[in-house]
Here is the input.
Amino acid sequence: MDSAVRKGEAFDPTLYNEDLAPIPRERRNWSWVNYSTVWMGMVHNVVAYTTAAGLVAAGMSPWQALGTVAAANVILILAMWVNSIAGAKYGLPFPVLLRAAFGYRGAQVPVIIRGFVAIFWFAVQTYLGSLAVGLILGTFIPGWSSLDVSILGMGLNGWISFLIFWGLHAYVIFHGMERIKFFELWAGPLVIVAGLVLVGWAVSVAGGVAPLFDQPSRLAPGEFWPLFALSVTALVSVWSTLVLNIPDFTRFSRSQGDQMVGQAIGLPLTTIIFSFMSIAITAGSTIAFGRPISAPDQLLLAFDNPAILLIGAATILIATLSVNVAANIVSPAYDLVNLFPRRLDFVRAGLISILIGFLFVPWLWMDNPETIFAVLGYIGGALGPVAGIMIADFYLVRRRNYDLASFYDRSGQYAYRSGWNTKALIATALGLAVAFVGLVVPPLSGLLAYTWFLGLAVAFVAYAALMRSESRPAAEAEPAMEIADELG
Here is the structure.
């Protein structure tokens, strides 16, 4: 490649801009600490807090619930590692990497679906976080609860809280990925500290750790394993979107070791610790208040102490902001940049993403939360085939080698037929058909407990078979890092 091509001057402007270009060496400064704290910030949220308690409520013993969470997270970290390598090697974001398998036009289909799920989750999490803002404001403003005049389905006090919390997201995003990195650096550990304080309270009211976990399973013999399978799939599906766009983060890594070690600490280890804490705290609430309280905001109200309410609500606010920024804004921001590279950069796309979040009116959906998580679970499961295809393409078809210039060239080896790789679309369709056959064939409804796994496996095998004649390593005249230095 000549110098003009390396600087991006000869690339199609509909496929290339600074945010979509490979990250050069000098800007790859995320260490294992950064990846650990980013994941800490993502797993410490209201939904994650209630998950382990929900498994216990479904009949599992505390130790069975922890085992289920651990199993799901072992699977997740393996999937994250596998799909992280390309991002760290080439410094490319998820929407660009997807072009190798789907073509520059075909890649837009899974990109749009992935962005849709992320923005939906952003809207839901923003609403949940705004409840914490309302608790804080209600502590200081007399008559706050009287401001419940309904406007478009939500009270005026709810709108004020929602807009304040939304504005905090805008502030963090406005300063780009570097601000996100430093925000997560302290936000994740802060939530752990607050959780440990509550665990200390639970241990004190129970008279020790053992009584908190001395609770037998209420499941009959034979009931545990079906619930275990369903729960593992649900837990994996919650993070299935991050399995796809983890390259958006690992592209900034100093080395493969940094992102792998950091993710190992931040995802499975922290999730298990956080689940242990949530179970202990919920068990403590049963002893202290006579009933299990799994919702953090309701637990704070039960203490009937303004200082505890204020500190606890602030922690919930930071935890929700942390997961929302990292998990639900970074991805759609890059997705929008990929769709409109000549008009958008990361900051503008991030602000547009959170504006779109208003359109999902999450305060109305939260009247039926089971519907939200069922729909998002199905959509998350639908992303399994995309993960399978990305993994098969990188490891089997490309032999872990990409041609960087072809990502930004409409006549390159990833152009296929007018930007569409029909083989990837066929493999996706096969994966979806097998994953969701239980919806149309009632006797096979049990397979719906394994949607993500089935979709990934079938699409992986189908894509590898269909692309077998094209399996070849991309020519690498120069090391990937050095080409990225000049492209970036």
About this structure: The CA atoms of residues 232 and 307 lie 37 Å apart. The first helix runs from residue 3 to 6.
